[in-house]
Amino acid sequence: MSEFEKLKIITKYEFLKHLRRKRLYAVMGIVIVVVLSILIGLPAFGVDYPDDITAMAGMLSVSATFASIGAVFFAGDVIAGEFERKTGYILFPTPVKRTTIVIGKYLACYVAVALIILLGYGIVCVSLLGIYGQIPIEVGTSFVLCLLFAGSVLSLTFFFSSISKGTMAATVMTLAFIMLISGTIDGVLMMADQPSWFLLSRAGDAIIMVYPGFKAMMTAGMGIDMPMEALEYDIGLCTAAMATYLVVCFFLSLFFTRRREML
Amino acid sequence: MRETIVTENLTKYYGGFLALDNFSLKIKENEDVALLGPNGAGKTTAIKILCGLLRPSSGTAYIDGINVVEERELALSKVGAIVESPEFYPYLTSEETLSYLGRLRGMRGRGLKSRINEVIKLVRLEGWAKVKIEKFSRGMKQRLAMAQALLHDPPILILDEPALGLDPRGMMEVREIFKETRKKKTVFYASHFLTEVAQVCDKVAIIDHGRLRVYDSVASLKRKYRSLERAYLKLTEATI
Q1: How many CB pairs below 8 A link A and B?
Q2: Contact A201, A178 (CB under 8 A)
Q3: Which terminus of chain B, N or C, has fewer Cβ atoms within 10 Å?
Q4: Of B54, B88, B91, which has the smallest distance from its Cβ to A262's Cβ?
């Protein structure tokens, strides 16, 4: 039996896990609530939808960014959980390479997250069509960047999951890395007018900064003395940064999982 | 008769703690060998190395002539194992779990389905085949662990306390399952239950502080020490 056949089986049963757990539907619910709160909240408070369709698209796409962060909750336990919950005593003595197990788990997580992102962008498209009668091309770019961002967040979570004793530690470390460490350094570098495209949080911002109307709205709303270059996003560099996180963290997670002992 | 499980000078350190000290053992085809020893003697460490879950600090292990450290997947294809108290994915039923593990071992279709039914019947989980494992008790999980170890009808069974968590009836049933399989399989079996070992196994390896103290037949140990209990107490007295 080939490793590819085994990979398909691992992916199938791991995906079944996501379908049967509540967190997939919880994150989907959050995405819907965020979009609805914008769609209903603005008119409810007497605020008109922005004239610029790309400003509205940016606001709505924020929900999809949440979806990518939701990847942390799917992947935090994938490797650490096998050790912490002792399910590895059943899975690891099978004649399957650990590399195959990790790739299968990654693919299953990615499909689950991609489903949520698809839902998010589906709602964005339907909303924009309903309000403006058209969908700007930037939605496509944002969608692709969001898929890439989700992949890099997943890889980072896999990395922390491969080195953590517990699933909670893996989840917290990933969130702390993206939101606190990366986010704080990003803020400092922005204030100092230094490049920060290599930080995952900054690279991820490109998902909504591809919308010119949204970027203009953010610039106008900042109200703080900040160099204008701080809001300039080089999509190419951001893409390269996300791809690097995706590849490097994934290979690190493979390396550590293969070496990890079931103590 | 050829040797199906061989360990050569297996040594394992956990940091500075020596858990297994030059552990060497040869088990022949279709032999049933029990691994006895007090808590922390190194039984589970030896079993984990044989199942590819730990890497030895030095030494090596072979299963059916295949080096477990170098060719883990190939060596494990011939093994059914229970290690410690395994847990299962709570979102799957026992039938789905066995289907998952069977497929990973290359089983499929009607053959897999009928074998799943057979082993589920063997471990008396018929009424629970379609129930999610999250509802299972410790004893039921142990029965399922037994079922997955036997699923692919492996020639070699490596079992770490297979009766752990079972009620007296369950323990008796496990003993019966062994009696059935022992003629056709090599069984390496870590246990604390001396009475059970005396009834089920041909040979006994007693381990203490990571070192093999004795490896002999149950009959011979009974002759030398008057009973298996006395042999065990004498050979592990440093700990007691």
Answers
A1: 73
A2: yes
A3: N
A4: B54
Q: Do B104 and A89 touch (CB under 8 A)?
A: no
A261 and B CB contact within 8 Å: yes
Does the pLDDT value for residue A65 go beyond 80? no
Three-state DSSP state, A122: helix
Identify the CA nearest to B117 among candidates B104, B132, B98: B98
Per-residue model confidence as pLDDT tens digits over B48-76: 999 999 999 999 999 999 999 999 999 99
The mean pLDDT value of chain B amounts to 90
Q: Which of A22-31, A70-79, A214-223, B154-163 is the least confident region?
A: A214-223
Instruction: Give the nearest partner residue to A9 out of B87, B91, B103, using CB atoms.
Output: B103
A92 contact residues in B (CB cutoff 8 A): 51-53
Q: Are A97 and B104 in contact (CB under 8 A)?
A: no
Give CA–CA dist A258/A97, Å, rounded.
8
Looking at the partner chain, which of B54, B76, B91 has a beta carbon nearest the beta carbon of A95? B76
Nearest to residue A122, comparing CAs of A179, A61, A181? A61
Residue of B44, B53, B133 best to disrupt the A interface, most CBs of A under 10 A: B53
Where in B130-240 does DSSP place strands (E)?
A: 156-160, 186-191, 203-208, 211-217
Query: Strand B3-14 to strand B17-28: parallel, antiparallel, or no bridges (unpaired)?
Result: antiparallel
Residue of chain B with shortest Cα separation from A89: B86
Closest partner residue to A97 (CB to CB) among B73, B88, B106 is B73
Contact B14 A263 (CB under 8 A): yes
pTM for the full model?
0.92
How many beta carbons lie within 10 A of that of residue B115, not counting itself?
A: 18
Euclidean distance between CA atoms B182 and A208, whole angstroms: 65
The answer to which of A225-234, B8-17, B166-175 has the lowest mean pLDDT is A225-234
DSSP H/E element including B165: none
Q: Do B53 and A90 touch (CB under 8 A)?
A: no
From B73, B88, B103, residue closest to A90, measured CB to CB: B88
What beta strand segments (E) does B15-153 contain? 17-28, 32-36, 58-63, 66-67, 79-82
Rounded to an integer, what distance in angstroms lies between the CA atom of residue B121 and that of residue A11?
29
How far apart are alpha carbons A48 and A180 in whole angstroms?
34
- Residue in chain B lying closest to A81 (CA): B89
Question: In angstroms, what separates the C-alpha of B204 from chain A's closest C-alpha?
Answer: 24
Cα dihedral sign for A94, A96, A102, A104? negative
CA distances from B209 to A45, B18, B33, B212 (A): 74, 8, 19, 8
